Amino acid sequence: MAKTSKKSKATKPGGKSKKQTKTAKITKTEQRDTKTGESYDDMPYESYAYPVTHPEHQAVVAKLFGLNPPDLETARVLELGCAGGGNILPLAIDFPKAEFVGIDLSPIQIDEANAHKENLGLKNITFEAMDIMDFKKKMGEFDYIICHGVFSWVPEFVREKVLDICDKHLSKNGLACISYNVMPGWAPLRSVREMMMIHTRKHEDSAKKVEQAKFLVEFLDRFMTPGTSMHNAVQNVHQKFQETKNDSYILHEYLEANNNQYYFIEFSEMLDAHKLQYIGDSSLSLMYTGNFAPEVDQALKQVPDTITREQYIDFLSNRQFRFSIITHKDAEIKGASLDVIDELVFSCDLTYDSTDAEGVTKFVRSGSDFFIRVNDPVAVTLLTKMCENSSQQFNLTEMVDLVVKELGKDQKPQIEKIIRGNVILYIFKNMFQPRIRPPKTATKLSIKPQAYALANYQAKIPGATIATSTNHTPIRLGTLDMVLLRHVDGTNNINGLVAKMMESIKRGEITLQQKTVPIHDPKEQKSILKSAVPQMLENMVKLGVLVK
Question: What percent of the chain has pLDDT above 90?
Fold first, then answer.
């Protein structure tokens, strides 16, 4: 466990920020990133949970590559650029014996984070309005550091400070996760961003800048010569604008004063300069050359070192963004090992699709274009059974038992050999999601269902549409679901929840409709809710929003 430090004084949330002396590249040069702070105060970034930044996920990747990461149950965790606390608050709830610190340049966002902390009654987390450049030695060591949405969007001296913090404040076996924009995928987007920056250069108001950026991108999409590489880039950005419907994302992703992209090999060189090293990517499947065509796989395997090989993978995939997990330079990183399999549990979020005439079975992932075809009876049986129980986590013994139950006890030794030999492959092919411990999530609907505490709290926030699952994933829910979720606190059965929803209708919080026509008859409303509420709750079980 990392060394605990004395708490440093925080700027009063909401108070006026004062100019402070900054250290750039660990010198006494005064440097301040005022523009970034002002833009986040003006239009705060929507703050969600990001599963790939979860310290447990960092630890899984580290274990797969032969490292011994700190125990998260009693760890110290730091988030640089925590915004409104959406990513770190769930960790404080899930790990009550651990200690969490979130810092952000924006006092307004820290105000929001502290309000959530107080409302949730959390004692193991501290939020501070702080410039990263003011991060001092007295903050102590941390076992895990999260830095998402910062590195590419700040000046060079702040980026250097981020890496210096990772060097000087990570515990001996500590891990950090840093996200950043990468080349070559960002090359065409950079041109679109530069056009937006030129078009909006005279606007100081953030909302006006976003409005004009939307106008320009729509204009370019309509009138730019179709079929060109630039028009394709504009179309991609326009599609993102339409999908996100989130002005804060547009402002901070495309219109910040700083937006820097790196080739992966450049990022690796930065790490080396700070006595740090790359362990692996948060998306393990993006490291695996076997996900390419066989001839490409064979060519990439000829590349002797990980850094160069992954740079070529970025070239081939035209990658735009990375989550890199890093540690100290002196850590001994090994190849992916089977030794750790017995320490992990696994889930599978695939869905059975079809089986062709030759017996090849296709599994798909809903909401994406991912699919996989398998024909080995053990693999087909295992995936089918795990898909049927997608909200559950299974260890190796339990996975073997699932297959043995279907294929027969006499085949158990062979079944165990096949599963043990293929688990690493399943992970790197993005078929399995590994964890160190099962999340405290419901696997079936109980008589009096209870929602994850944070999800229940979020549902009570006026206008909220996002609830966090027990899997540290933001779930977008409709108005009916969010209103129901407010009452899923372990005290109401189905009939009680229907009654609560009827009260919400009377208060005008929700309206039931059939083919866009409002339903006003109470008997009809109740009949619909009696059918709909159990279905909504079953869906919440699948999404990991319920704990019992």
Answer: 73
**CA-to-CA dists, residue 436 to 91, 341, 471, angstroms:** 15, 10, 12
The residues, any chain, with a CB within 8 Å of residue 407's CB and separated by 6 or more, are 377, 378, 381, 415
Count of residues for the chain? 548
Cα–Cα dist 199/197, whole Å: 6
Round the CA-based radius of gyration of the chain to a whole number and report it.
25
pTM of the model: 0.88
Q: Look-up: residue for tokens 């006003």?
A: 520
**Identity at 532, one-letter amino acid code:** A
Q: Please give the distance of CA 132 from its chain centroid, rounded to a whole number.
A: 22
Output the six-digit token pair for 524.
């009809």
Long-range contact pairs involving 121-124 (C-beta distance under 8 Å, separation at least 24): 122/89, 122/92, 122/93, 124/92, 124/95, 124/96, 124/97, 124/98, 124/99, 124/100
CA distance 350 to 384: 9
Confidence band of 15 (pLDDT split at 50, 70, 90):
very low
Amino acid present at 219 = F
Six token digits for residue 415: 């079944």
Q: Which residue bears the tokens 């590249």?
A: 25
Helix axes 34-42, 247-254, angle to 10 degrees: 170
CA dist 489 to 2, 17, 447, 486, Å?
35, 40, 12, 7
Residue 77 CB: number of other CB atoms within 10 A? 26
> For residues 136 and 15, which has the higher predicted lDDT (pLDDT)?
136
Q: What is the pLDDT of residues 124-172, one digit of tens each?
A: 999 999 999 999 999 999 999 999 999 999 999 999 999 999 999 999 9
Q: Which amino acid is at 294?
A: P
Partnered with residue 361 across adjacent β-strands are 355, 374
Q: Which residues contact 224 (CB under 8 A, 6 or more apart)?
A: 230, 231, 234
**Strand locations in 243-382, DSSP E?**
261-262, 276-281, 321-328, 345-347, 351-355, 361-364, 371-374
Tell me, what's the pLDDT at 280? 96
Asked if residue 284 lies in contact with residue 428, where contact means CB atoms within 8 angstroms, the answer is yes
Maximum distance among all alpha carbons in the chain?
75
Do 189 and 237 meet the contact criterion of CB atoms below 8 Å apart?
Answer: yes
CA dist 542 → 87, 156, 447 (Å): 21, 43, 17
Question: Distance (Å, rounded) from C-alpha 79 to C-alpha 86?
Answer: 11
* CB-based contact 384:352 (threshold 8 Å): yes
- Give the separation between CA 53 and CA 105, rounded to whole angstroms: 20
DSSP code for 513: E
DSSP count for the chain of H helices, then E strands: 19, 17
Q: 184 preceded by cis ω (within 30°)?
A: yes
Strands 170-182 and 261-262: parallel
Element (H, E) at 175: strand 170-182
3-class SS at 176?
Answer: strand
Q: What is the pLDDT of residue 20?
A: 37
Of all helices (H) and strands (E), which one includes residue 418? helix 412-428
